[in-house]
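input
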Amino acid sequence: MFDYLIKGGYLVDGTGAPGRLADIGIKDGLIAAIGKLAEPASETFNADGLVVCPGFIDPHTHYDAQLFWDPALQPSSLHGFTTVIAGNCGFTLAPVLPQNVDYVRHVLARVEGMSMEALVSGIPWTWSSFGDFLDRVEGRIGINMGFFVGHTALRAQAMGAEANKRPASETELAHMSRLLEDSIAAGGLGFSSSQLSTDFDDEGNPIASRLAAPAELIELCKAAGKGPAIGVEMIVDGCMRSFSDAEIDLLVSMSRAARRPLNWNLLNADASATQRIARQLELSERARRVGARIAALSMPVSAVQAESFLTYCPLHMLPDWSKVFELPVDERMRQLREPATRKWLFERANDPNAGAVGRYARFGLYTVGETMSKENEGFEGRKIEDIARQSGKTSFDTFVDIALADDLKTSFWAAPVDDDTTWANRRGLWDNEDVLVGGSDAGAHLDRHCGATYPTRFLGEMIRGRKLLPIERAIQKLSDAPARFFGLKGRGRIAPGYNADVVVFDPARIDTGRAALVNDIPGGSIRLTAEPVGIIQVMVNGKVAVKDGKPTPATAGKVLRSGRDTESTALRESPSRVR
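output
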């Protein structure tokens, strides 16, 4: 007798094979049988006219904190995600000593845009080691989670107050290596780090991992490779612009040292950046020549994005804008009123070497979101260029003036990059073996960024919109492809013996609903979200986690631990040298 039976759905199993009508029998959290099934079940779901497929896997999130006040991990679970990878960019909640908790909180608040009130009141901080942290998470999450071990946390534990001030000594590096080995032995998936030059803590100091010399990164990758790690995650400036030779050498050396795949975030398929994209993909080609492997993450659709002059967001990443945006609010506003400062900001924003962040300089295409002042009445929902045309000012001056009238609190919706050429560029990337679909950043920048909706919009486009991929291939990119890259056992497919992570959706309606700001974070902070359309049911390890687009109280998600829940992704060593 099955615990659960899904009858009559159109099965797309995740492998890319043609879909077919089939029943799915589930028992003890696993797929027990597929076909025309007559065996009775404790509960039966009629999936006639619906697509049944594996749960989706997000390779890049920052849900490390949110899981403590939102076990359902919204909105990811609502849009069909049954597994997410967290602990990215070197930021994790463990390992951590009591004296380092405040530093970790401030870095997460500053760089990843998390609410400080929530980080203080919403998280118990009752662990020290990485294993303690994983034990604390186990049994309290609605979907499956795996965690990389973050470089900044390792540095803070090994170096204390000096972590963000200088390179590590040999003794300190040995301490970090032991911490990393222990963390991976306890279930950490691998090593993550960042050397993004725009990342500073709340006191204006570089984040701790930015002080690491290449030798430190290589040594930590070697330490990760001693255990059952499944990979390395890294971000450098070239991820946003174009890789330098030194960055290529570093990333290739890191993958070789770990003998594991390395992934980086995020390859943007902008229509105007074909040279940048070619250079970024060259990284993977160089890696392959020496027996390493490097994959880029790339979003299949534009993320829902809101910008603000008040809080940290991609506007800070425009060339040199941080020099003004890092100022105290009063001084920031004074500078923004200065014609000379405005002229300089506009010129720097339009630097031809701005790379992927240059798309945030299309000021006329922003849509005004929430406003506060009388001067801005009637602007909500309107494009900046339309308001500018009516007022006789430039789009940039209009953009800044609206923000100043609201004491910088205005939210602006960034224009999606969805022209035909951009879609063609995305389509080309989907067939590249060195590109993984995904990278939502979910759990970070909650007040202005919502990337977790990408499966529903992507599937809607592929089924009813531009139809650039068959449904079988689109679902494979969302499920089996990331599962195989990360070596996740029993995930990513609907097959006998696999875990029953299952999505049921209506192909006639699947889509992403309208974005909205909601106030449901501890301390009263807001987050940007969007409801799913057409998601009928999501199952995690055989339990219904989402029903009719809403979360259930179920917490059947598992912590995915290296070794226990993963297969080896070790690469064969090559004697070749990087050329």
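quick obs: Residues 160 and 184 are 21 Å apart (CA to CA).
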